[in-house]
Specification:
Largest sheet: 8 strands, mixed
Strand content: 25-35%
Number of strands: 29
Strand order of the largest sheet: 6-5-9-3-2-12-15-14
Radius of gyration: 26 Å
Helix content: 10-25%
Number of domains: 4
Distance between the termini: 74 Å
Bound molecules: serine, zinc ion
Length: about 525
């Protein structure tokens, strides 16, 4: 038996942490091979935590250089530290300050998780579990803290120093060539949204005035000389900001919004609070060589990361099983943005082609998994077409089920009720059920059952009843761990057309559960009777 594989993490085992971390004050001295991170955490036991419950912080490849509690060095017997864990055996039964000093070598970090160097600049990637490669922490999405980050470096090494939130102070360190910047993010966030950047970068500046009249500075940082190639990305950003206000009522919340384009980046881009970091192929467009598709991709990814500010950051995920809560919803939002900005039918066709090319095979193979998985060994393997693209389709179906106004009412309630929360799919669906009075219990199966269902449809004229009878049936093939499926709630939009393709004005169908041109297939088989048109 192999014993080196960690036991899988299961959704059903979810428990909140025993301790909260209310504030994080980081003091980072950037150095290419030896960056020192001093982290001061304000920690408190949660209500109900038994006195003396150990505090276990996550780490990954870390070296502990110092540790103190309320300003006093800890006795060796009070804690144990390894490269992947720091345990306080019996922390105080009251709020306390823990100061942890670690060192890391950004130049040797080829995993591109945590703090690393790319083209001579420092940058970070913390989703999903990269923050633990910077310092010991409760590195999970349901631990929300207010972060202050002080960055210090030699001016020659990193003239630009960026962090999350607003810049509250910058200065020089007398008698040296060092300088610093202090960034404060007032919005509590999980560690995966932490970011810092240091380097010699050029930038493009603009401003945006929100609908309530707040001025926001916009900056896109790129390698010197490439500023012109970020002009389209800046335009896409401003259009995204307008669209989110208009369509979802969401306004930007900090004084500054920054994008940094870097050449080495594993994911497309990352929605770190106020400091998005991008693979530069989704920022830079050279008018001489960029294709129409390059422009569409840049616009889509800029919008996606910006929209995460509300769907992901202000409302985050309780645990990584809920990844589709932010990703499916945000993909849906960026698809809607591109549809409004460009051609809706062309966008829809390209999204469905992508779904069929990537998600359908995934759902039909050995790696099939529900939009919300129930178990993982390595969360990085779950950034899949199912979580992202099928997750977006499920949100689109929800809108079809509820109609435009019902969907918007549910979204408004979700933003209102869960702002500042680490939420679940159940929380999300409850807002739509409550705002519209609809029962979404069966709809929730879309999040639990894997596999691509097929729907068969036949239409026949029923002379006796003077109706058109639409016979519908659904089947879903078995998938790993799910031999049989319960019927999904499948909404089908329909319209009557005359032989020349013109819409016919037909009364709403009289079948129960069908109205406004949407048929609801809730069973494995159903016949929906529609009134026949009359001349
Ligand atoms: N959270 C990132 C994104 O999807 C990961 O790539 O935007
Ligand atoms: Zn995303």
């Amino acid at each position: 038996m192999r014993t080196d594989i960690a036991a899988p993490v299961r959704l059903e085992d979810y428990k909140p942490t025993d301790y909260r971390i209310d504030t994080v004050a980081l003091d980072v001295r950037l150095h290419p091979e030896s960056t020192r991170i001093k982290s001061r955490l304000r920690i408190a036991p949660r209500e109900g935590t038994a006195p003396g419950t150990p505090l276990i912080l996550d780490g990954d490849d870390l070296t502990l250089e110092g540790l103190s509690l309320d300003g006093m060095a800890l006795l060796d017997t009070a804690y144990s530290a390894s490269r992947d864990r720091l345990t306080l055996h019996a922390p105080p039964d009251r709020p306390f300050d823990l100061e942890i000093v670690t060192k890391t070598n950004p130049s040797a970090n080829t995993k591109l998780m945590g703090l690393y160097r790319t083209d001579g600049n420092y940058c970070t990637q913390c989703e999903a579990e990269g923050f633990r490669r910077i310092t010991y922490f409760l590195d999970r999405p349901d631990v929300l803290s207010v972060y202050t980050t002080r960055l210090e470096a030699r001016r020659s090494d990193a003239p630009v120093l960026l962090g999350n939130g607003n810049c509250v102070e910058t200065g020089k360190i007398d008698g040296t060539d060092r300088h610093y910047a202090i960034w404060h993010d007032p919005f509590p966030k999980p560690s995966y949204l932490f970011a810092m950047v240091g380097g010699d970068l050029g930038h493009l500046s603009d401003t945006f005035t929100t609908r309530s009249g707040r001025d926001v500075a916009l900056k896109i940082y790129v390698e010197h000389g490439k500023e012109d190639r970020a002009v389209f990305a800046m335009d896409a950003l401003k259009r995204s900001m307008v669209w989110d206000e208009k369509v979802f009522g969401r306004e930007y919340d900090l004084d500054i919004f920054m994008i940094v384009a870097v050449p080495d980046f594993n994911m497309g881009a990352m929605e770190n609070k106020g400091l998005n970091i991008f693979n530069d192929k989704y920022v830079l467009a050279d008018p001489q060589t960029a294709t129409d598709q390059d422009y569409a991709n840049i616009e889509g990814v800029i919008a996606h990361e910006y929209f995460h500010n509300w769907t992901g950051n202000r409302i985050t995920c309780r645990d990584w099983f809920q990844l589709c809560l932010k990703e499916g919803l945000t993909v849906f939002r960026d698809q809607e943005f591109s549809s409004d900005e460009r051609s809706r039918p062309v966008k829809r066709i390209s999204d469905v082609k992508l779904l069929k090319a990537h998600q359908f095979p995934e759902d039909a193979g050995p790696l099939a998994h529900p939009v919300r998985p129930v178990e993982y060994s390595e969360i990085n393997n779950f950034y899949t077409a199912t979580v992202y693209e099928k997750g977006a389709e499920v949100v689109r179906m929800l809108k079809t089920v509820l109609g435009t106004d019902g969907f918007r009412a549910g979204m408004d309630l979700y933003f209102d009720r869960h702002d500042g929360d680490a939420a679940t799919i159940e929380d999300f669906l409850a807002c739509f059920a409550e705002a519209t009075g609809r029962d979404l219990d069966q709809f929730a199966l879309w999040y639990r059952q894997s596999g691509t269902p097929s729907v068969a449809i036949s239409v026949s004229r029923n002379e006796a009843a003077d109706t058109m009878d639409v016979s519908l049936s659904q089947t879903c093939p078995p998938t790993p761990g799910q031999a049989t499926k319960q019927p999904f709630h499948i909404p089908l939009t329909f319209a009557w057309l005359d032989p020349s393709g013109q819409p016919l004005n037909v009364a709403s169908p009289d079948a129960p559960g069908s109205a406004d041109g949407v048929l609801h297939l809730n069973d494995s088989k159903a016949v929906v009777r529609l009134p026949k048109t009359r001349d």
